[in-house]
Design brief:
The structure is a single chain. With 394 residues, the chain is of the alpha+beta class. The protein contains 6 helices and 20 strands. The strands form 3 sheets. The protein has a 6-stranded antiparallel β-barrel. Strands 6-5-3-10 form a 4-stranded antiparallel sheet, with helices on one face. Strands 8-9 form a two-stranded antiparallel sheet. Strand 16 and strand 17 form a beta hairpin. The chain is flat, with a radius of gyration of 36 Å. The relative contact order is 0.17.
């Protein structure tokens, strides 16, 4: 009997030793799932190219801007005045205040009559008349209904007349201020639609959309990497800038990058750009032009039709040009299993049970030993339902 137990014990030790050797050779462990975004990109500096109209003055004087920095303006709209002489700062402030009141009055004019009413008393009167109409309708009193409606229309009409009178009064006040200045002036009208700004940098004529296809590496490198941004003040010398309007519908970013980083790129390809100095804003665009190679580099210009407000404050930008982007689960290569039919899967674990999670490999980095995967559309067990994944073989 004792000999029998010795034999059983010896067999058990041998079995456990075998399993120990197996796991030492092919260790099995698990790890948490990690969902990441994998990018193929390059970091570089670039210049923003956009359609811009700058007004220059023929003589020294004082400029008054009737619109605010960053406002959108329409072509041929009045955006300010230029005075051919010195104008006191107090007069400019008066114009600004009165123009603000006129804008508010004009905005009200574009709404319905009811919104013109800024009096609780008038609103209450109309409410009572409407109640009377309902009561008269219940009594089939057609004559009273007609009278009540006339009263309502009269109240609304009087308020409209009052509103029109207010706008006319404000316009008269503005004319009075202009007359009091006593300096000849002319209106400033926008020559293009876009975003109004009082900042210039001298690149308005150096970087224009019409010439993008002529810009090469040599031209890019001839541009200063430190654009001097200047603010337009109210006092302007002869030949100075008065204001600027920037096309906000279409703009470009021009970059000088190594050609080996764009070997798989063609004009018309969709890419993304992350603007690192604009709170990491990411915008999709298309490759508009790729210049000829010079010393292993090329100028790549990406076209955008998405409005990005902060972009109009910059000329030189720090960007990541993103060629490809993958969102999925990052797993070690040894966690990928291949079935006889070629299907690939990850062994997922949920509540201590194992599941076959069939997946597509989106990206592979053999040097670092990991892949980016996502569950196949028809997968019965989705990776998103798993707590952990199994690494290694059983």
């Amino acid at each position: 009997m004792k000999k029998f137990f010795i034999i059983v014990l010896s067999v058990a030790v041998a079995v456990f030793a075998g399993y120990g050797i197996k796991y030492a050779v092919t260790p099995v462990n698990t790890q948490q799932l990690e969902y990441i975004t994998q990018e193929k990109s390059i970091n570089t500096n670039g210049f923003i190219v956009r359609g811009e109209w700058v007004m220059y003055t023929r003589s020294a004087g004082t400029v008054y801007h009737a619109v605010s920095e960053g406002d959108r303006v329409q072509k041929d709209s009045v955006i300010g005045s230029f005075f051919y002489g010195d104008v006191p700062e107090d007069s400019i402030k008066e114009l600004s205040v009165i123009d603000s009141k006129i804008k508010t009055a004009e905005a009200n004019e574009n709404t319905s009559s009811v919104t013109f009413l800024d009096s609780a008393t008038v609103e209450s009167a109309i409410y009572e008349l409407e109640k009377n109409i309902i009561e008269a309708a219940g009594e089939n009193d057609i004559l009273s209904i007609s009278e009540y409606k006339k009263d309502i229309n009269s109240i609304r009409q009087n308020n409209e007349i009052s509103h029109d009178s207010e706008l006319e009064e404000l316009q008269a006040q503005k004319e009075q201020i202009l007359s009091g200045i006593g300096v000849s002036n002319e209106e400033i009208t926008a020559q293009i639609s876009g975003v109004f700004t009082t900042y210039t940098d001298g690149y308005e004529s150096l970087l224009v959309p019409e010439d993008i296809e002529t810009y090469d590496v040599a031209y890019f490198e001839s541009l200063s990497q430190s654009p001097e941004i200047r603010k337009i003040e109210s006092k302007v010398d002869a030949g100075g800038e008065v204001c600027k309007v920037v096309n906000n519908h279409m703009w470009y970013v021009m970059m000088n990058i190594p050609v080996d980083s764009i070997e798989d790129c063609d004009e018309g390809d969709t890419v993304k750009i992350r603007f690192n100095n604009m709170a990491d804003a990411v915008v999709s665009g298309t490759i508009y032009n790729i210049s000829d190679e010079q010393n292993g580099r090329a100028v790549v210009t990406v076209k955008f039709t998405t409005y990005l407000e902060s972009a109009f404050s910059y000329r030189l930008v720090d960007v990541d040009l993103i060629f490809e982007s993958y969102d999925g689960y990052k797993v070690p290569i040894q966690a990928i299993h291949t079935d006889a039919d070629g299907s690939q899967k990850v062994i997922g674990i949920s509540e201590n049970r194992e599941y076959d999670c069939y997946c597509d490999i989106l990206f592979s980095n053999t040097d670092s030993g990991y892949v980016i995967v996502e569950s196949t559309e028809d997968a019965e067990n989705k990776l998103s339902q798993m707590d952990r994944i199994l690494i290694g073989e059983r």
